Amino acid sequence: MSIVGLLTFANFNDVKAQDQPAAEATEQVAETADQAVAEEPAPVEEAVAPADDTKSFHQVLKEKYIQGGAGWMTPVLLCLIFGMALVIERILYLNMATTNVKKLLDGIEDNVKGGNYEGAKELCRNTRGPVASIFYQGLDRVDQGLENVEKAVTSYGGVQMARLENNLTWIGLFIALAPSFGFLGTVVGMVQAFDDIEVAGDISPTVVAGGMKVALLTTIFGLIVAIILQIFYNYILTKIESLVDQMEDGSISFMDILVKYHK
Predict the structure, then answer these.
(1) From CA 60, how far away is CA 53, in angstroms rounded?
(2) Is the model more confident about 141 or about 63?
(3) Residues contacting 212, CB < 8 A, separation 6+
(4) d(Cα 109, Cα 119) in Å, to the nearest integer?
(5) Per-residue pLDDT for 153 more than 60?
(6) d(Cα 87, Cα 69) in Å, to the nearest integer?
(7) How large is the average pLDDT for residues 194-217?
(8) Which pLDDT band, with edges at 50, 70 and 90, does 238 fall under?
(9) What are the pLDDT digits (tens) for 102-131?
(10) What is the reported pTM?
(11) Which of 16, 24, 36, 243 has its Cβ near the most Cβ atoms within 10 Å?
């Protein structure tokens, strides 16, 4: 029995000795795995870009045009289109009518001083603008006396002034029509809102919102169109006043030249 006990104790020690390295190896593997997990970078969440809900100015304008109702927004839009067409035509015409009056008068004086009236007339023909046209009419009647020249300059100056103011009446009409259509849409929208209240028997915001939106949008667009056209209208008036001043001052200087050198 003593021998059996010694053998059993020896075998138990061998097994224990073999289990210790295995346990240590297992612990080392576990520690390594924990370190690897600890050192592993946290997953990066992909940034999701928020949806771009911003609308362009053109899209917003189109949306408001539809909400305002094509029946009332279309007349306002036509006022803007026709009004701006006339404005552009006037601006181009007035810019082309601008003349360097001092240079023209110097050329006329050089020709008239030498008695070359035909040369002065040719210079006026080759110069664009109402001032040159007025001077040409005066030179064309120089043989009839200075009194007739002055009458011709005055009369033809009135004709040129009327040409400068051409189409201004139509621009003024569109300036007045645009907000008028807008206010008319406002009144119709208010009537529609009251009709909806009468039908529903309720004055809740959802009932009157549609009619009120039409009323407000048509008014806003009508006023915007009128403001735009009014700004250009005032610019055109200022340009015409400047040209008229050139015509008057140039006509006085022109007559002084003829009085000085005409024989």
Answers:
(1) 12
(2) 141
(3) 189, 190, 193
(4) 11
(5) yes
(6) 27
(7) 68
(8) very high
(9) 999 999 989 888 888 889 999 998 988 899
(10) 0.70
(11) 243
Sketch the domain layout of the chain as residue ranges.
69-180+229-261
Q: CA gyration radius for the chain?
A: 46
Measure the CA–CA gap between 31 and 29, rounded to whole angstroms.
Answer: 5
Q: How far apart are CA 99 and CA 36, in angstroms?
A: 88
DSSP string, the chain: -HHHHHHHHHHHHHHHHHHHHHHHHHHHHHHHHHHHHHHSPPPPPPPPPPP-----HHHHHHHHHHHH-HHHHHHHHHHHHHHHHHHHHHHHHHHHH---HHHHHHHHHHHHHTT-HHHHHHHHHTS-SHHHHHHHHHHHTGGG-HHHHHHHHHHHHHHHHHHHTTTHHHHHHHHHHHHHHHHHHHHHHHHHHHHHHHHHT---HHHHHHHHHHHHHHHHHHHHHHHHHHHHHHHHHHHHHHHHHHHHHHHHHHHHHHHHH--
The structure tokens listed for 92 are 């181009």
